[in-house]
Specification:
Blueprint: H1 3-32, H2 42-49, E1 52-56, E2 59-62, H3 65-74, E3 78-79, H4 100-107, H5 116-119, H6 123-140, H7 148-165, H8 171-176, H9 182-199, H10 202-208, H11 214-220, H12 222-243, H13 255-260, H14 273-304, H15 306-319, H16 329-333, H17 336-348, E4 358-359, H18 401-407
Antiparallel strand pairs: 1-2, 3-4
Helix pairs in contact: 6-7, 7-14, 9-12, 9-14, 12-14, 14-17
Cofactor: heme
Subcellular location: Membrane
Keywords: Heme, Iron, Membrane, Metal-binding, Monooxygenase, Oxidoreductase, Transmembrane, Transmembrane helix
């Protein structure tokens, strides 16, 4: 028997073992686990018991504004081990750093990049791939269906690569020719790779990655593909800085250049290349599929709500008579119905539809229960129709659109409307 045949046999056996383990674990959780008598999914539990429910012996899910502020903003608890599945290039970055204090150190290096006034400077870099997308969709002319998730992922990859590295990838253009850029595919594959990687031992992962299936190998290599791309951009940018060829007069500073000049406040040391590469990779992952998911849901809502589409189209036509000339961001931010539509879409369809786990220490001062401990049910009132998409929820009358939206999103002081949105999504990084 040849060595190749032996490797194939071992890989196939390992894969079968992993599949069998997953099936057995699923059967145990469904039929034999102590919580198997609770058939509802988490959303159903919220509907039945209220905004705070226990979903496992040591895990509580909440859909509650007060708890959100307490966990994420006041106490700032550390992340759970799940986030280690998001490690890039075998190195931590902000998203994969569990301790809050260490996370804050990482965050200082990139936070100025996402200030709205700074993002507004990158409008030309954002408009270019957007207009490329419009042209390609126009050329298709409705003759064939379009996979929106892939389309918007490539759009966001173009935007992120351009604003992060000052590099033109032309992912949208390649997508239009059915030749998706390997980087875009790798960014899409990485979350799946991370989940699979986190549930199997290292030895088993190393074995299954040898399975000679091209698409499977590509998924396994997604981390390496991204690391090689970012590494090349890092070394190129560092060479430009050291040689004095970098244009310091430009009003835009790509994210990568910020990281290359950043010093850790705790040590005063420059950010090492390994941290820069991992951080930049994390931003590509966090900003592409999340945005494509939300944008796809937005279009889905428009496809089934013609009245909303007509009203939105009317407002956009007035502010943007030429589809190939995108107005300044300040103009778009002043359009009431557009902003109502976006806010309502983000309220209903989270960009990251998953629990953002935090670990609560055994002794946590200030987290004493305020409800009857004999039940998981909460006493939080639910806003009527909170689970329904309604872009007209916001009024464009006297008090403005934002105030009306906030009435349906956060509690207000007036006793006549002490409600909170039911399906509040928590976005934290």
């Amino acid at each position: 028997m040849s060595s190749v045949t032996i490797i194939h046999s071992i890989a196939a056996t390992a894969l079968l073992i992993i599949i069998a383990f997953a099936i057995l674990k699923g059967l145990y959780n469904v039929f034999f686990h102590p919580l198997s008598a609770i058939p509802e999914i988490v959303q159903s539990l919220f509907e039945k018991y209220g905004p705070i429910v226990r979903v496992s012996p040591n895990k509580v899910f909440f859909n509650d504004l007060t708890s959100t502020k307490s966990i994420y903003s006041v106490h700032k608890f550390d992340k759970s081990e799940y986030y280690k599945s998001l490690v890039t290039n075998n190195n931590d970055h902000a998203m994969a750093t569990l301790e809050h204090a260490s996370h804050s150190v990482h965050r200082k290096g990139y936070a100025p990049n996402y200030v709205p006034s700074n993002l507004a400077k990158f409008q030309p870099e954002m408009h270019e791939p957007m207009l490329e997308l419009v042209n390609n969709v126009t050329n298709i002319g409705g003759n064939t269906s379009i996979e929106c998730l892939a389309l918007f992922r490539n759009l966001m990859v173009d935007v992120l690569v351009s604003t992060s590295y000052g590099y033109r990838l032309h992912a949208v253009k390649k997508w239009a020719t059915d030749n998706e850029d390997p980087l875009s595919t790798a960014i899409s594959d990485f979350p799946q790779r991370g989940i699979l990687r986190s549930v199997v031992p290292s030895w088993a992962w190393n074995v299954v990655c040898r399975i000679p299936v091209a698409r499977w190998r590509q998924l396994c290599d997604s981390d390496r593909i991204m690391a090689e791309f970012v590494s090349e951009r890092v070394y190129q940018a560092r060479t430009e800085i050291n040689s004095g060829r970098l244009d310091e007069s430009s009003e835009t500073t790509p994210l990568l250049h910020r990281l290359l000049k950043h010093r850790y406040s705790s040590t005063g040391q420059m950010m090492p290349d390994s941290d820069i590469i991992s951080e930049a990779m994390g931003h590509m992952i966090a900003g592409s599929d999340t945005s494509s998911i939300s944008l796809s849901y937005f279009l889905w809502e428009l496809s089934r709500r013609p009245n909303v589409a007509v009203k939105l189209q009317t407002e956009l036509d007035e502010a943007m008579p030429n589809a190939h000339v995108i107005p300044d961001i300040s103009v778009l931010q002043s359009l009431p119905y557009l902003n109502a539509f976006i806010k309502e879409g983000l309220r209903i369809y989270s960009a990251a539809p998953s629990p953002l786990e935090r670990v609560v220490p055994q002794s946590s001062k200030g987290l004493e229960p305020t409800r009857d401990q004999r039940t998981t049910a909460g006493d939080q009132p639910i806003s009527a129709g909170g689970l329904m998409f309604d872009a007209s929820r916001a009024s464009i009358q006297e008090h403005g659109i934002l105030n009306e939206i906030c009435r349906h999103t956060y509690p207000v002081k007036t006793p006549s409307f002490q409600r909170r949105v039911f399906n509040m999504s928590i976005l934290s990084w």
